[in-house]
Amino acid sequence: MLEKLKQEVYQANLELPQRGLIKYTWGNVSGFDEATQLFVIKPSGVDYDEMSPDDMVVCNLNCEVVEGNLNPSSDMPTHAVLYKSFEGIGSVVHTHSPWATVWAQAGMDVPAMGTTHADTFYGAVPCARFLTAEEVNSNYEYETGKLIVETFEDKNIKPNEVPAVLLQGHAPFVWAKDCAHAVMNAVVLEEVCKMNLFSKQLNQEAPALPQEILDKHYERKHGKNAYYGQN
Amino acid sequence: MLEKLKQEVYQANLELPQRGLIKYTWGNVSGFDEATQLFVIKPSGVDYDEMSPDDMVVCNLNCEVVEGNLNPSSDMPTHAVLYKSFEGIGSVVHTHSPWATVWAQAGMDVPAMGTTHADTFYGAVPCARFLTAEEVNSNYEYETGKLIVETFEDKNIKPNEVPAVLLQGHAPFVWAKDCAHAVMNAVVLEEVCKMNLFSKQLNQEAPALPQEILDKHYERKHGKNAYYGQN
Amino acid sequence: MLEKLKQEVYQANLELPQRGLIKYTWGNVSGFDEATQLFVIKPSGVDYDEMSPDDMVVCNLNCEVVEGNLNPSSDMPTHAVLYKSFEGIGSVVHTHSPWATVWAQAGMDVPAMGTTHADTFYGAVPCARFLTAEEVNSNYEYETGKLIVETFEDKNIKPNEVPAVLLQGHAPFVWAKDCAHAVMNAVVLEEVCKMNLFSKQLNQEAPALPQEILDKHYERKHGKNAYYGQN
Amino acid sequence: MLEKLKQEVYQANLELPQRGLIKYTWGNVSGFDEATQLFVIKPSGVDYDEMSPDDMVVCNLNCEVVEGNLNPSSDMPTHAVLYKSFEGIGSVVHTHSPWATVWAQAGMDVPAMGTTHADTFYGAVPCARFLTAEEVNSNYEYETGKLIVETFEDKNIKPNEVPAVLLQGHAPFVWAKDCAHAVMNAVVLEEVCKMNLFSKQLNQEAPALPQEILDKHYERKHGKNAYYGQN
Predict the structure, then answer these.
(1) Cα separation of C39 and B8, whole Å?
(2) CA dihedral defined by C199, C201, C207, C211, rounded to 10 degrees?
(3) What is the set of domains in chain B, with CATH numbers?
(4) Per-residue b/e over D10-29, b at no fewer than 16 CB within 10 Å?
(5) Which Gene3D superfamilies match (chains A, B, C, D) (predicted)?
(6) In whole angstroms, what is the distance from residue C130 CA to residue C133 CA?
């Protein structure tokens, strides 16, 4: 079942090390099928060299395995919560990409300092708080998903406008309408985290991007009258 | 038309990711034909793997498409303004190369701190101010070009002696007599931005290059009595 | 003798430059055979291109060469002490990987600041003090091993829970149950050292990972009820 | 003439970009023939793809071209002065490798902070002062060589024990008994410059390597009783 999506998810997982986002098996990509309300995710801890599209695991939004002989990624419940809560997203990516993780470990939101950021994220990428001991010890990965949703609600951020989050002391989760775009958003986040860190070191007073430039760049790619690309 | 130039522009665009200046489609190179006063530019948002020389778009200095089935790069009007205003340049490159973008986000000129800089740029590479809300909301990409020209006039910098600019909160534009040299200048700028950042961190009092060494290195490559290379 | 282990040790040594942990011959991997109480180690200063599995040197825990025509790595006695003192380890890796060496030169323990760390190291990776002049001038490499053991005893750290150490002014030693995991642990240490450095620069108050998250991540991979992977 | 040396010099020049020390043609390697007192050097500004061993230029210690159809590297006179002044060296390498250039631009000696340094350089790598206007305007490249020699004399450093120098505002020159070792020393310098920068950032009080460890590591590779490697 869902053979085409399995192929997409498999390819997107391979893209993570190719794009320098992960080493070994430190990441996972899933893809969601709107029609069946099922999602396909990478198996846990399997070497990429030995992995095939058939090894992808199919799960439902109750965090149950529907098809597959292997254990799904241990982060599977986080993915499930995001698909259940964030309308319209078709793929979730988790990595420990180093520059984004640097910001996560610092416990800081990533401000919109430039147009590279504004082309993808309409405002700062939030950093969610540490999970509490209680959350950690009940159902860790599920609570992680809930915390992400809570963070977007509390800060009044629209997940389709800012498709990424950092988890304090952990690393990023990123999403998009499909796998290729979710991986791309993870690359953008990584690049922005690297550049913003050094811009702040170079000039402690470096300002955030003025609102009108943020609007302009986000809108020319994602707005109603977008004119970037061939559409 | 302009088949040879299309080939050059195509190749130079491919060189951007190969040299680590861009990821995905975050950059564009154009080339100018003096005889026809037309320029050739990359189409907007097309994957490099799927792009061919025939996909390049031909435009005139009034920002009109003269030939081509695809939309030109959304930054096309910036290129047009530069060709119209900066005499003798034959190619313009725009990237979001990370170290140059770090300086752009910091809103700082790149000082001439070493001979790597002086071999290409005869003095500091200026950082143009943020565009105003009015400029952003009228004809953003055209106004970007005008701001670059204004910056060089205000600071009394000769665009053929300092063939690059940073736009605050955005990224660099770079130029040269032809596509290969424009890409090379973009590489030099990127390298210099990386090195200068860390030289300043290592020694806050690190001085600019003395004028006579700046002169010497610039002149031995670009002066009347240049003796670098085989000419 | 020990042909299979020689092959593993050979492959693991080749992996060091492939994973960006070393340049030239600045590292060494050994593997221990529990049954014979012998270990196999890379020869000293031999180019990787010219090295074959048969060039690996077999040594005993008294630092004597048992088989092999080449000199063993000059760090061989350090490996011997670790195999003698740290029960259950099957491989030792030494590199001068740059980010770990940065921390070693700073003389600082690497704190557990994120889950990337906690997935492998159950707490801070200690930095052992400089060797004394007396230690340096008696039997340097052997004393290095003894100092590592002393460091773990003094700080009451279990070597199987924190399978790595930094030597002040020198570089890391890392270990694991087998060669592939020892190289992986060296990669984790390198990545963590890079990220922690910049997290601290971004936020001087960046906290260590809360104990419950450290426990959770370490236990889900290495604990009795581990559920990461396919076992 | 000197065909074997031309081949070595050619190969060593190709190694510079392969090892990440240079971009484009921003570096040069030469090799010295003791018997004839001639040296072979890369031509100036020729693309590496188009260069062959036959393009190497033969010069004498008076800075005259003895054989070759191309202009030698514009830095040729610096190489000549080093061969004339530093007894026993067989190769000189010049690069603008970024981390070494960072220190050169900062105008700072590179202290011996770790054993990676001590394995190659017996003490700090000195940074020579800016050339004076007079030196720049008389015979720049020749004066550069003289300044390097003066620096080693003034600081009482033996060029065979510390085979590298930084030129303030410029970049490193490195040497060794042959081309392969000169390139290796340039790689060591680059790595050490990167690591020391960040060690100092991590711990402003990070100490230099104690003298006895510096002695030990330098001597075990280069001393009378060296025991590193297979000799």
Answers:
(1) 58
(2) 40
(3) 3-222 (3.40.225.10)
(4) bebbbbbbebebbbebbbbb
(5) Class II aldolase/adducin N-terminal domain
(6) 9
Q: How many Cα atoms are found within 13 Å in the side-chain-facing hemisphere of B62?
A: 2
User: In 3D, which of D184, D176, D168 has the Cα closest to residue D82?
Assistant: D176
* pLDDT interval class at B229 (50, 70, 90): confident
Compute the half-sphere exposure of residue D188: CA atoms within 13 Å on the CB side of its CA. 28
Distance CA B162, CA B223 (A): 14
ipTM value, please give it. Answer: 0.96
Q: Which helix (H) or strand (E) holds B188?
A: helix B179-202
Class of residue B53 by CB neighbours under 10 A (exposed 0-12, middle 13-18, buried 19+):
middle
Q: Could you write out the DSSP letters of every residue in chain C?
A: --HHHHHHHHHHHHHHHHTTS-STT-EEEEEEETTTTEEEEPBTT--GGG--GGG-EEEETTS-EEE-SS-B-TTHHHHHHHHHHSTT--EEEEE--HHHHHHHHHT--B---SHHHHTT-SSPBPEEPPPPHHHHHHHHHHHHHHHHHHHHHHTT--TTTS-EEEETTS-EEEEESSHHHHHHHHHHHHHHHHHHHHHHHH-TTPPPPPHHHHHHHHHHHHSTT--SS--
**What is the 3-class SS of chain A, one letter each residue?**
CCHHHHHHHHHHHHHHHHCCCCCCCCEEEEEEECCCCEEEECECCCCHHHCCHHHCEEEECCCCEEECCCCECCCHHHHHHHHHHCCCCCEEEEECCHHHHHHHHHCCCECCCCHHHHCCCCCCECEECCCCHHHHHHHHHHHHHHHHHHHHHHCCCCCCCCCEEEECCCCEEEEECCHHHHHHHHHHHHHHHHHHHHHHHHCCCCCCCCHHHHHHHHHHHHCCCCCCCCC
Instruction: Return the number of other C-beta atoms located less than 10 Å from residue A202's C-beta.
Output: 19
* Eight-state DSSP code of residue B114: S
Nearest to A7 by CA among A31, A25, A37, A24: A31
Chains touching chain D, criterion 3+ CB pairs below 8 Å? B, C
Q: How confident is the model at residue A225 (pLDDT cuts 50, 70, 90)?
A: confident
What is the predicted pLDDT for the residue at C225?
Answer: 86
Instruction: Quote the CA–CA distance of B128 and D201 in Å, as a whole number.
Output: 31
Separation in Å, CA of D198 to nearest CA in chain C? 6
Contacts of A154 (CB under 8 A, 6+ apart): none
Quick: pLDDT tens for B51-65: 999 999 999 999 999
The DSSP symbol for D29 reads E
**Chain B residues touching chain D at CB-CB below 8 Å:** 113-116, 119, 184, 187, 191, 194-196, 198-199, 201-203, 206-207, 209-210, 212-213, 216, 220, 227-230
Is C37 in contact with C71 (CB distance < 8 Å)?
no
Radius of gyration (Cα) for chain B, nearest Å? 17
The answer, yes or no, to whether residue D231 has pLDDT greater than 80, is no
Quote the percentage of chain D above a pLDDT of 90: 94
Quote the distance between the C-alpha of residue B167 and its chain's center.
11
Check CB contact under 8 Å for B169 and A230.
Answer: no
Q: Please state, in angstroms and rounded to a whole number, the distance separating the CA atoms of residues A170 and A188.
A: 18
CA distance A102 to chain C (A): 5
Find chains touching chain A: ≥3 CB pairs under 8 Å: B, C
Report chain D's mean pLDDT, rounded to a whole number.
96
> From CA D28, how far away is CA D44, in angstroms rounded?
9
- Kindly list the strands in the beta sheet with D27-33, ordered across the sheet, starting from the edge strand earlier in the chain: D65-67, D57-60, D38-41, D27-33, D91-95, D172-176, D164-167, D127-128
Set of chain C residues whose Cβ sits within 8 Å of the Cβ of D206: 105-107
A45/chain C closest Cα distance in angstroms: 4
